[in-house]
């Protein structure tokens, strides 16, 4: 995993923006970010171990067949009781913006591990989800904790009861039983109230820019242009509150207004560039019907629902690494309990489909 470290560092140092930067500080920051992304070096980074693994892979098929004869499933303790995942924090060790949040969290959980598996019910699960299910349910089981199944149902245009039922069947087929079956929509009122609170604190504002305009504000399609603030960013708090109420009352059409979080446009992380918290959708929700016409985004919903459920370990794939910073920012901004996000690698399998969208297309085309 670290094979290209030197080459990558050399490329970073050649960036025009770092022309006069202190070389030692650049290397120190580069090494720190690489460590956060890949984790500590282990047997995968040992040339001798890699050579040994390569030799084993070249064994004749007959030898491989003999080696797998009498194969049995690997126990959860073996998969999740060693390596990096065995060294995660213990419940209650994660620092909070207020100490009383830790006390309330430990009291609610009894100091036990609480995880969740949070799929969006917009399609059928595939074999790639098997890893996520095993990691979340398995980690809780190994540590004597519990795991919730929480449907991320914040997009009424894509979600159906058929997929809700299918996901639960899949989890049970893999041998797990959720401690609770929950929905992000269970928290729509709480989420809305926190969005109002965020706006009252001057940390959110209603924006009337188009998608193209927002993209330009964020530096264009390649995120390399000059970033600049939305013209509505510094509108008075009372005005944003009134506009957000108009959104909720259905007085704007879809795409005519969004609620954006007022974050840090100077930060190097795109997930801190005033991402959207609420958008308008005139569609009937599979559980709440037509009660709402404003719906929270994943980036607003996910961390807060984890907080409501006192999740100790928010386990997700590497694609959400950049979201960790905004996850923590939002929890602290509204002063709620802040879980810890940990990332792991996605399951990659060749010669199969690992996409809910593509699976639905195959079904619809009769493949």
Task: Tell me briefly what this model is.
It is built from 14 helices and nine strands.
Write the layout of secondary structure elements.
Layout: H1 5-13, H2 23-38, H3 47-57, H4 61-67, H5 76-80, H6 99-109, E1 114-117, H7 127-142, E2 146-151, H8 161-173, E3 181-183, H9 188-200, E4 204-207, H10 211-217, H11 237-248, E5 258-261, E6 276-280, E7 294-296, H12 298-308, E8 313-317, H13 323-333, E9 340-344, H14 356-364
Parallel strand pairs: 1-2, 2-3, 8-9
Antiparallel strand pairs: 4-5, 5-6, 6-7
Helix pairs in contact: 1-2, 12-13
Beta strand count: 9
The largest pleated sheet is described as: 4 strands, antiparallel
Q: How widely separated are the two ends?
A: 38 Å
**What is the element string, with H for helices and E for strands?**
HHHHHHEHEHEHEHHEEEHEHEH
Q: What's the gyration radius in Å?
A: 23 Å
The DSSP helix count reads 14
What percent of residues adopt helix (DSSP H or I)? 40-55%
**Widest sheet: strand ordering:** 4-5-6-7
The unreliable regions are: 61-67
Name the structural class. alpha/beta
Mass-distribution shape: globular
Description of the molecule:
This protein is of the alpha/beta class and 367 residues long. It is 41% helix and 11% strand. The strands form three sheets. Strands 4-5-6-7 form a four-stranded antiparallel β-sheet. Helix 12 packs across helix 13 (323-333). The radius of gyration is 23 Å and the shape is globular. Residues 61-67 have low confidence and may be disordered.
């Amino acid at each position: 995993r670290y094979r290209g470290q030197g080459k990558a560092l050399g490329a970073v140092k050649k960036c025009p923006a770092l022309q006069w930067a202190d070389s030692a500080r650049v290397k120190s920051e580069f090494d720190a970010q690489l460590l956060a992304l890949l984790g500590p070096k282990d047997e995968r980074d040992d040339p001798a171990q890699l050579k040994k693994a390569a030799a084993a892979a070249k064994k004749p098929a007959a030898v491989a067949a003999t080696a797998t004869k009498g194969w049995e499933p690997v126990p959860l303790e073996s998969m999740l009781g060693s390596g990096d995942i065995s060294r995660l924090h213990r419940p209650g060790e994660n620092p909070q913006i207020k100490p009383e949040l830790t006390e309330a969290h430990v009291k609610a959980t009894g100091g036990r591990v609480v995880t969740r598996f949070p799929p969006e019910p917009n399609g059928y699960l595939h074999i790639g989800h098997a890893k996520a299910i095993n990691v979340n349910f398995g980690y809780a089981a190994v540590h004597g904790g519990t795991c919730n199944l929480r449907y991320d149902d914040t997009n009424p245009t894509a979600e159906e009861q058929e997929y809700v039922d299918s996901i639960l069947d899949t989890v049970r087929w893999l041998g797990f039983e959720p401690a609770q079956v929950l929905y992000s929509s269970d928290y729509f009122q709480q989420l809305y109230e926190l969005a109002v609170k965020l706006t009252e604190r001057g940390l959110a504002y209603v924006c009337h820019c188009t998608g193209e305009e927002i993209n330009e504000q964020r530096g264009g399609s390649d995120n390399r242009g000059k970033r600049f603030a939305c013209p509505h960013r510094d509108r008075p708090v009372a005005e944003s509150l009134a506009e957000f109420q108009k959104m909720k009352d259905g007085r704007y059409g879809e795409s005519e207004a969004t609620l954006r979080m007022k974050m840090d446009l100077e930060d190097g992380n795109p997930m801190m560039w005033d991402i959207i918290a609420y958008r308008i959708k005139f569609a009937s929700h599979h559980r709440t019907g037509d009660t709402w016409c404003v719906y929270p985004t994943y980036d607003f919903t996910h961390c807060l629902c984890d907080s409501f459920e006192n999740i100790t370990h928010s386990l997700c794939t590497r694609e959400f690494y950049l979201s960790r910073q905004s996850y923590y920012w939002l929890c602290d901004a509204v002063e709620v309990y802040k879980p810890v996000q940990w990332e792991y690698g996605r399951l990659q399998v060749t010669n199969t489909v690992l996409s809910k969208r593509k699976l639905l297309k195959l079904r619809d085309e009769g493949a």
